[in-house]
């Protein structure tokens, strides 16, 4: 798997998305042996450049092996991608990547996978400046639209108000909603949106994005922290505060995961220092269940 730093360094989101998706599928196949007693006469292993619409997604979800069907029987669905573009997503990890950079790469790769499968894919960029929404479509021009929207998205302000987000849940539409967010909120506004999406769409995959330096508190000595959404600053000794911080962080992560699963979301924690493969694997599994 290519690292997120290398993918970001390509400075070409369409190319990075394709490299990430096809590298993941090819690598997952190459790293596993075929199981005994399985019948492969109607399949062949995935190779880079193959038409992803012929992938057997059910087999992939069960076994993490990637094969193309020789007889084409496709299923498709609607995939609704959501990007949290509040200012906290500007937080930069030690590898130089912002959460926003990682989220762009991830959502572009998921859009590529879903579009190649024939799914109708839409995108909503959630920021206080207003809701930027591309309705789900399955035509050939949708993927460039999605890439452009992701490339030009900027993180700013706090998470948008319920009034701003109301159009997302104005009508019931069966879909798999995939939200990438760091879940920094003031009063449960992200949870409220996802709960409404769960009611109107049916399936929610919540990808909780955290920077590696947040997860490990890799800072040293005297540090000044600035809240990217409020502008407030805090000075502290990182070495002294590390044990208490990590304890509180783990408690928050446990409670966040428990609450998300109680709400019926498929929750997964992501580390911006790690490749995109874990998120893509969960997307394929959830896609199979939604289909």
Q: Which shape, going by the Cα principal axes? A: globular
| Rg result | 20 Å
What is the succession of H and E elements?
A: HHEHEEHEEHHEHEHEEHEH
> What is the name of the CATH topology of the largest domain?
Rossmann fold
Total number of domains? 2
Counting DSSP H or I runs of 4 or more residues, the number of helices is 10
State mean pLDDT (0 to 100 scale): 87
Distance between the termini: 27 Å
The order of strands across the largest sheet is 5-4-3-6-7-10
Helical percentage = 40-55%
CATH architecture of the largest domain: 3-Layer(aba) Sandwich
State the CATH class of the largest domain. Alpha Beta
Poorly predicted runs of 5 or more residues:
29-41
Q: How much of the residues is beta strand, in percent?
A: 15-25%
Structural class: alpha/beta
Largest sheet entry: 6 strands, mixed
Fourth CATH level, the homologous superfamily of the largest domain: von Willebrand factor, type A domain
Number of strands: 10
Organism: Hymenobacter properus
Protein name: DUF58 domain-containing protein
InterPro entries: DUF58, vWFA_dom_sf
Protein architecture, described:
The protein is α/β, with parallel strands linked by helices and 291 residues long. The protein has two domains: 4-69, no CATH class; 78-290, 3-Layer(aba) Sandwich (Rossmann fold). It is built from ten helices and ten strands. A hairpin with a 2-residue loop joins strand 4 and strand 5. The two termini are 27 Å apart. 35% of the residues are buried.
